[in-house]
Amino acid sequence: MIEDRLARLRDFLREKGADAILVSKEVNLHYFSGFRGDDTVLLVSPDEALLVTDSRYTEQAAAQAPLYEVIRQKDGLWKEVAAAALKRGWKRLAFEGDALLYRDYEKLGTLLTDAVLGPAISLAPLRTVKEAEELVWMRRAAAIGDAAFDDIVKFLRPGISENEVAVRLESTMRALGSERPAFSTIVASGPRGSLPHGVATEKLIVAGEFVTMDYGAVVQGYHSDMTRTVCVGKAGEKQRAVYEVVLTAQRLGVSLVRPGASGKEVDAAVREQIKAAGYGENFGHGLGHSLGLEIHEEPRLSSASTCESLEPSMIVTVEPGVYLPGWGGLRIEDTVLVTEDGAEALTHSPKELIEIS
Ligand code: ZN
Ligand code: ZN
């Protein structure tokens, strides 16, 4: 748990050759200390763990982050952070290059009269392998997404707007325990289906249209992410054909997720199959991404993936799509857990084409 995470953070710190690490990204405050709030900084050295926050959070921080010494700042966060570092004689302070704002970097740099900021690091690689407890929350978030799908299939009909569909999905998830939507809910109907990130609009759904819904829940900070495309009414020949291409590709992708596979090879195999079906130009985005405390995490399944080898307890989405401007498109997405010998889908909603009568 937090002890293990703190130990891994300290190993990482030693590797980087710094005296302490300054953690400022909100999800990493949560992951490495248990504290859930903002405007707070962790300072972790080989033998100390400090949490610098303000009066709004001191009581909460003491309860949520018992392994940390809570320091209440009264004169500005960065002044307090610099004072704590200088007092301890730290000379090199690693920081999150993907989180610290440049203006704060400059300010802190000026205050650290006797120390330097660096190296810039990313803590994302420390969160790629999920712990058992994290998987409990992720399974729960995925189950809430599935339950919202069961409900929305009964709700969908011609004449309602994409926004109504989004509100219904979000309120169902909230009622089932989701803290908030995992991201801006995507509902793209008819010709709008060619927009991979078509967030819901006032557009009314017309009989015979595909409706692509991409959404997720958040439980204890952990996200879920799923996409289903259904047909409101009877699907035409082309709709069936394109759906089959995406479904076959999606199943292939899930079957290739296993320990040892690289992020590039899984993406390439699925891309090749979509290309062979004649839609190579119509699948532009990466095949998938990990998620957890953030909706997009490492590793990725894409041509640019830096993941050489998937490991058990990593999470990835498998989400191929085909997008035809002017016509529409569709995507199918499952969140998948890498197991000891393969993969297990956390998303359980049906994937065969549903035609809502
Ligand atoms: Zn998604
Ligand atoms: Zn996704």
What does this structure look like?
The protein has 357 residues and is of the alpha+beta class. The relative contact order is 0.11. It has helices spanning 2-16, 26-33, 58-64, 77-87, 102-111, 132-155, 162-175, 237-256, 263-276, and strands at 20-23, 41-44, 49-53, 69-72, 92-96, 116-121, 186-189, 209-215, 218-219, 222-223, 226-232, 288-290, 297-301, 315-318, 321-324, 328-331, 334-338, 343-345, 355-356. The mean pLDDT is 97. The strands form six sheets. Strands 4-3-2-1-5-6 form a six-stranded mixed beta sheet, sandwiched between helices. The chain has a four-stranded mixed beta sheet with strand order 7-8-11-19, with helices on one face. The protein folds into two domains: 2-127, Creatine Amidinohydrolase, Chain A, domain 1 (3-Layer(aba) Sandwich), CATH 3.40.350.10; 132-356, Creatine Amidinohydrolase (Alpha-Beta Complex). Bound molecules: zinc ion (ZN) (2 copies). One zinc ion (ZN) binds at residues 214, 225, 227, 333.
How does the SSE layout of this entry go?
Elements: H1 2-16, E1 20-23, H2 26-33, E2 41-44, E3 49-53, H3 58-64, E4 69-72, H4 77-87, E5 92-96, H5 102-111, E6 116-121, H6 132-155, H7 162-175, E7 186-189, E8 209-215, E9 218-219, E10 222-223, E11 226-232, H8 237-256, H9 263-276, E12 288-290, E13 297-301, E14 315-318, E15 321-324, E16 328-331, E17 334-338, E18 343-345, E19 355-356
Parallel strand pairs: 1-5, 3-4, 5-6, 11-19
Antiparallel strand pairs: 1-2, 2-3, 7-8, 8-11, 9-10, 12-13, 14-17, 15-16, 17-18
Helix pairs in contact: 4-5, 6-7, 8-9
One zinc ion binds next to loops.
